[in-house]
Amino acid sequence: MLIEVKVPQLSESVAEATLVSWHKKPGEAVARDENLIDIETDKVVLELPAPGDGVLVEVLKSDGATVVSGEVIARLDTEAKSAAVPTSPAPIPKPADPPAVVTKPTPDVAASAAPTVMPAARKILAESGVDASQIEGTGRGGRITKADVLNATKPASPAAVVSVASPTVVPEAKPALPQPSTPSVESALAGRAEQRVPMSRLRARIAERLLQSQAQNAILTTFNEVNMGPVMELRAKYKEKFEKEHGVKLGFMSFFVKAVVAALKKYPVINASVDGNDIVYHGYFDIGIAVGSPRGLVVPILRDADQMSLAQIEKKIAEFGKKAADGKLSIEELSGGTFSISNGGIFGSMLSTPIINPPQSAILGIHATKDRPVVENGQIVIRPINYLAMSYDHRIIDGREAVLGLVAMKEALEDPARLLLDL
Question: Percent of the chain having pLDDT more than 90?
Fold first, then answer.
């Protein structure tokens, strides 16, 4: 009995997908729910399990093919037995042709063989009418370069001409100096390694969305600095008890998420989005957390982050990181979001201007925390400082709301008790 293997139903926002790599070949046995092939969308990589036990008898779409929801890509035979893939019979060798007789050219003929002429040199030879065989090439492998042609065609210096009737000496004419030789593109790149790799569907989608964001949003970035000392002290005091109680480490991202939610509650327009000529104010707080993965940057969503505890946030972020590394994030986990946080500090970034993740209207960039000199009460002191950068869509968010929103995040982080007391 033949069973059709079809592309699973994709989400409404995903029109098509790409077949990455088949894990089975025609003729091989497969077990029910065994992964047959990886399917890449512009958001995630999906595994397609076998619909039943049997033998993969036919593959209709090969690696790299573009497919849509419900399309048949292979067939299974539930009654067939595993067999090796038939190979084509070896071709009958043709009788060898008699060896060709190679006539060794005489020295005169060999000497008159046309030398290799570089493109720039060929143009000058055509204009001057000089025979290339009369020029000795100094380039690699005896190639004739532009400099060789210029040196061979420059006029000889004429001797000074003395008039018989007058002792006046005619000044010697100075020949034009040859232009410095400019290597052609072909010669400059000859022998240098290059590799051309097509963009993955995810990378192409990332590029498309970033260009869309910069083209459609009036992006402006505001900056501030935050003293991370209070958060670091709180974390150092309770991190062991926190990990023992909740089974997850207490990081900094949960504090940033809580600080962002506190600011969005005070200034709802930062949590809004643009839809045509309308501003959509969201009554919920779905915070996107930018996560690096082997396939590129992905932004899974913390749903209802305002209702999550620090422990719940840390557990979810850790889960997202593991899923991103394994390519297991689902489309639902990557869809939506009202505000995003990008943490370049884990890579050592000091400062950046993050790009808005459409259709959102703002994004917070956090960076590496470093000891820096600051002024407090007229004294220079050293504090662990983190630079915050919030990019926002100036079409709907004015500078006042953007600056005050970032200040609200700063104040919440510098006094973590505000987060617990909802101040």
Answer: 38
